[in-house]
Specification:
The protein contains no helices and 9 strands. It is mainly beta.
C-alpha cells in the first residue's frame, strides 16, 4: 500500500456525557487513485455503568476528499481491573452511488473485537476497485480502549 500519514483529528477536552473522539495511531492511509482510508475512534459516555464502555471505530473511504463509504465497528466492553471481555458487538455502514460494502463478519476474543469488510467501487456496473480492511478495537482490564 502507501505511506501512513499523521493524525488529522484534534482531541477535544473531556466533557461529561459527551462522546470522546480519539484519533487512531494510523489515522489516514493513502490508497491508489486518489482514495484515502481514514479511521476515528469514538468512546461513548457510560457514566451509568462504570464497569462497561461502548466504543465505535469508524473507517471512512474518501475519493478526492469526499466521503464515499463508511463502515463502523461498535463494541461494548466489560472490565474489572483484572479482566476484560467483549460484551456485545454490532456494525453499521453507509455508501454512496458507485460504492458498496461487503461484510466479512465480527469476531471476539478476550478484550478484542475485530471486523472484516470490503469496500467495492463500480462504474457502469463494472467492478473497478476493491478495498478490503480490518477494524480492530481492544480494551484493557482498566478500561482503556484503542
Amino acid at each position: 500500500m502507501a505511506a501512513i500519514l499523521t493524525s488529522m483529528f484534534a482531541v477535544p477536552a473531556f466533557a461529561a456525557e459527551e462522546d470522546i473522539i480519539v484519533p487512531d495511531e494510523n489515522t489516514v492511509i493513502q490508497l491508489p487513485n486518489g482514495l484515502t482510508l481514514e479511521s476515528e475512534l469514538i468512546i461513548h459516555d457510560s457514566a451509568s455503568r462504570a464497569s462497561t464502555k461502548t466504543a465505535e471505530k469508524i473507517y471512512r473511504l474518501k475519493a478526492n476528499g469526499t466521503t464515499v463509504a463508511t463502515a463502523s465497528l461498535i463494541a461494548t466492553f466489560r472490565y474489572t481491573g483484572s479482566s476484560v471481555s467483549v460484551e456485545d458487538t454490532n456494525y453499521s455502514y453507509t455508501t454512496t452511488s458507485g460504492y458498496s460494502y461487503s461484510h466479512g463478519g465480527i469476531t471476539k476474543s478476550g478484550g478484542t473485537a475485530t471486523m472484516k469488510g470490503t469496500f467495492k467501487q463500480t462504474v457502469s456496473g463494472i467492478l473497478v476497485g476493491i478495498t478490503p480492511f480490518t477494524i480492530k478495537m481492544t480494551c484493557t482490564a482498566n478500561g482503556q480502549i484503542s
